[in-house]
Amino acid sequence: xxxxxxxxxxxxxxxxxxxxxxxxxxxxxxxxxxxxxxxxxxxxxxxxxxxxxxxxxxxxxxxxxxxxxxxxxxxxxxxxxxxxxxxxxxxxxxxxxxxxxxxxxxxxxxxxxxxxxxxxxxxxxxxxxxxxxxxxxxxxxxxxxxxxxxxxxxxxxxxxxxxxxxxxxxxxxxxxxxxxxxxxxxxxxxxxxxxxxxxxxxxxxxxxx
Amino acid sequence: xxxxxxxxxxxxxxxxxxxxxxxxxxxxxxxxxxxxxxxxxxxxxxxxxxxxxxxxxxxxxxxxxxxxxxxxxxxxxxxxxxxxxxxxxxxxxxxxxxxxxxxxxxxxxxxxxxxxxxxxxxxxxxxxxxxxxxxxxxxxxxxxxxxxxxxxxxxxxxxxxxxxxxxxxxxxxxxxxxxxxxxxxxxxxxxxxxxxxxxxxxxxxxxxxxxxxxxxxxxxxxxxxxxxxxxxxxxxxxxxxxxxxxxxxxxxxxxxxxxxxxxxxxxxxxxxxxxxxxxxxxxxx
Lengths: 209, 285
Known about the structure:
The complex is a heterodimer.
Chain A lengths: L6 E6 L4 E6 L2 H14 L4 E6 L3 E6 L5 H9 L14 E6 L6 H8 L3 H10 L2 E6 L6 E4 L14 E4 L3 E5 L2 E4 L4 E3 L2 E5 L20 E6 L1
Chain B lengths: L1 E5 L3 E5 L19 H10 L8 E5 L4 E4 L3 E9 L2 E5 L2 E5 L5 E3 L4 E4 L4 E9 L30 E2 L22 E7 L10 H7 L2 E3 L7 E5 L14 E2 L4 E3 L7 E3 L6 E2 L3 E5 L3 H5 L7 E6 L1
Parallel strand pairs in B: 12-20
Antiparallel strand pairs in B: 1-4, 1-11, 2-3, 3-10, 4-9, 5-8, 5-10, 6-7, 6-9, 12-19, 13-14, 13-20, 14-17, 15-18, 16-17, 16-19
């Protein structure tokens, strides 16, 4: 279990950041944890995405320093309290793309719902808009490309899939993901701490209702 | 207290931004021209982190409900002050001690786009996730200023400056320093050279989220889709049409287009003063 994430590629991102490319989503989360645990004074932010991690740092962090940090043993597997959070969301599977997704994979709508609710999800990163989380861990059978033509209006709470991800729209916006259903959960609320319900590392279960 | 009589095309509270919330999908935000924002605050003896009003294309008019010290920086704009029956035109980049009940109006900029108005003490606008900046993409932070808004001033003062150099904007053709980006190898041979050898015209649709540029096409070598990557303001992304977009302060925290180059630090402030129709050029440092 002391296997170290492999930084496939380390690139400059302007004069105040580096981009680390990794070979898997799991290694993105591992490198993020590793760099946060290092608490290096020059690092101001560690931002994960699909296969890359951005490290914002001032000039005190050289490329050699970063390589050295990445070669350190990873922190113990014990997740910190915020990272151990599990959120269960009730989903109504009535989305406009449910039937088409069922047809695409040659199964019934019930099978699609079963596959979508059986998975144990983890938030890999947030992006696109405030509180929009990319959930990984979904059933590979549901890995389907996004719509060719994005919708101009996707309602808040829409639960949708695109390639390896499940995502939930925090507020109404344009969007090209395939919508399976919706949830009443509030994904982003400035009155809450933290405002985003699903932050990187959060475990997520979806329950059909 | 200051009352907004007319906000002009767009007037937003901005400060040094909202770092540290990318995990929530919330971007960096903050003044587009941070150099001008900082100067405005220094001229009135504020901390540089105090909020200023970022005024796009001038034309804001306000009334002072109490005597105040104000400075306007950034775009080159007339500042017209009416006090009683007297009307006077003032210069930007200098502190102005103004009496209660006067009105102050900005003209339309002759050079540049964004003006920054600071008041001694700063603006006491609500702090959202550690910042008073308005994020136009996420809709987070104090609402855009509107007619009749009354703005309270704060207490973020430091001592007044003895003197302050007042930089002015140069000609309208800007040459911005860049560093080759993480995905420069996704582009055809010579694309980076095309980026630096060409003149790029700002599109009308440019805003705080992204500055869109028109010029020769930047051809891709790898045409596949890039999995979403973290982004930073100043990154130069190239969508499939080959026309670059420089990400602004309100850009989303991730993006799916390859980044051919990234502006060197400090250069985004200069881009914040380029207006639609202006030409910019890039030089590799």
